[in-house]
Amino acid sequence: MTGKAKPKKHTAKEIAAKVDAATTNRGGGKAGMADRTGQEKGGHAKLECPFCKITAPDLKSMQIHHEARHPKQPFDESKLINLHAGYAAETSKPRPGVRGSFKK
């Protein structure tokens, strides 16, 4: 005869990981499009390339982009467009990467 079959139980670590994945805004999908494009103050993209209009979150990323895509033109920090400069902070909207869920 075989032994008793024990149902496999989920560990606390596994359950906590699932809750974290479900309740943390990672900025993906259609809901995160505004975050990624920098259309609002809380968006990931802060700087915009003056030549090709691509966005980057920080100066170092923009410098890497510029060296790769526009090697013939000199990199000038003052020509970059700051997308966050023209928008006022809105505290009621959730920001990307902030823990919390609307479906609790």
Automatic annotation (TrEMBL):
Region annotated Disordered, chain positions: 1-44
UniProt main location, coarse: cytoplasm
Gene Ontology cellular component list: cytoplasm; nucleus
Subcellular location: Cytoplasm; Nucleus
Keywords for this protein: Cytoplasm, Nucleus
Compositional bias annotation for Basic residues: 1-11
InterPro entries: MBS1/2-like (IPR045230)
PANTHER family named among the record's database cross-references: C2H2-TYPE DOMAIN-CONTAINING PROTEIN, GEO09665P1-RELATED
Protein name: Protein METHYLENE BLUE SENSITIVITY 1
